[in-house]
Input
Amino acid sequence: MTFCTDCWVKGVQVEHIARGAVFLFYDLHVEIRDSYFHMNQASAPENYGIEVDDTSQSLFENNILDALAAGIIVSWSSSGNVIFCNYSINDSPGSQVLSQTLSNHSVHAFMNLWEGNTGPDVSGLSNAIPAQLCYQTNNLGSGGTFDPSEVLPAWNLTLPSFFRI
Output
């Protein structure tokens, strides 16, 4: 979707993904929910379930992301989005790339809320700068089973001085 406002994707299944099942570029008020994105075409670093570029004020909720390099990747100047209760399982098969199932990919994506998501590697969120809010995101770890000690703490990075209220 490009230059789309008030658009939605609900209840779809996409398999054998070439780059991204859903690619958002310069969008506003998009909702992607209750969908299943799985199995990329090739083991490459650019196989995403939901790729979010320059998109704001959108909701990504209750999606299952299976065997992808990154289930949800937020990049460029995307801000004000909510990534809520998505479940990412299984790394990309045969991939030689260390994947991050939920990831903030660039320094200009900020002020996004990541809450209640679960995945085998959510370490890409710890580098989410500036001003990301991550709350109760569960890291399954390499074993693929939930471990309560792996729940990431909530963190809210300090806003730069020009964002002070």
Remarks:
- The chain has one domain: 18-153.
- Residues 151-165 have pLDDT under 50 and may be disordered.
